[in-house]
C-alpha cells in the first residue's frame, strides 16, 4: 500500500511489509477514534485546547512545563507537529535526487533512498503512535464549551429575535437598526470593559421588541443554531468512514503508548 507506492519494500522487503501493515493499522484506528469523537460531538466544532475546551491525555505525574507548574502543554500534539514537519521536508530528498540524475540507481540515489524513506517511515510511525494515544484519551470539557457558546449565542440569535419581533408587527428596518446598535454596545461591554455579554438584557429593555429576558433566554438553545451539522456528520460517518472500518475490522483495537 503506502510502503509499496514509496518503493520502500523494494529496498527492505521484510521491513517494508511490516511498516506498510503497521501504518495501515494505525491510520485505521486513528480514523475510528476520530469518528467516535465526531459522532459524540456532532453538534459542536469549537474544540480548542487553548480555551480549555479540549485536552489531550495528561498523566498524573506528567509535567506540563518546567518553568510554569500550572501549565498543561499539549506535548503529544507538539511532537506530532514537529515530526510532521520533518516528514514533509523529508519528501524533498527523492525530489532533489530525481532532479539531478533521474533515479538511475547510482549511489547518490540508493544512499538517499535508504536514508530518507526509512526515516520517513520511522517518523510516520511515531506520528501515528502519538495520534492513537491522543484520540484514545481525548478529554472534551463540555461545560466549558457550553459556557463559551452561550456567551456568544445572543449575537448568533439576533436574526431570529428580530424576525420574531417582525411577526409581532414591528418594522424590520427599524428593528434591524435597533439590534445593530445594541449588538455594538454589548460587544463593547465584552471587549472593552471585560464584562459579560448583556445583549439579551438590552433587547429585553427595548420596548420595540416587546419581549422579556426569560422569553429570550428560552431561545438560547445551541442545537437550534447548528444547521445541518449533525446530519452531515452522520452521513459522512455512515457512507465514508464506517465502510472502511467494517472492511478492516481485523486491524481495529490498536492502542498508542507514549512515555511522558
> Would you identify the regions where 5 or more consecutive residues have pLDDT less than 50?
1-16
Helix content: 55-70%
The succession of helices and strands, N to C, reads: HHHEHHHEHHHHHH
**How much is the radius of gyration in Å?**
26 Å
Number of strands: 2
Report the CATH superfamily of the largest domain: Fumarase/aspartase (Central domain)
Structural class: mainly alpha
Query: What integer is the average pLDDT?
Result: 81
CATH class of the largest domain: Mainly Alpha
Terminal residue distance: 32 Å
Largest sheet: 2 strands, antiparallel
At the fold tier of CATH, the topology name of the largest domain is Fumarase C, Chain A, domain 2
Estimated share of beta-strand residues: under 5%
Q: What oligomeric state do the depicted chains represent?
A: single chain
**Cross-sheet strand order for the largest sheet:** 1-2
Q: Domains counted in the coordinates: how many?
A: 2
Count of runs of 4 or more consecutive helical residues: 12
CATH architecture of the largest domain: Up-down Bundle
Q: What characteristic shape results from the CA principal axes?
A: elongated
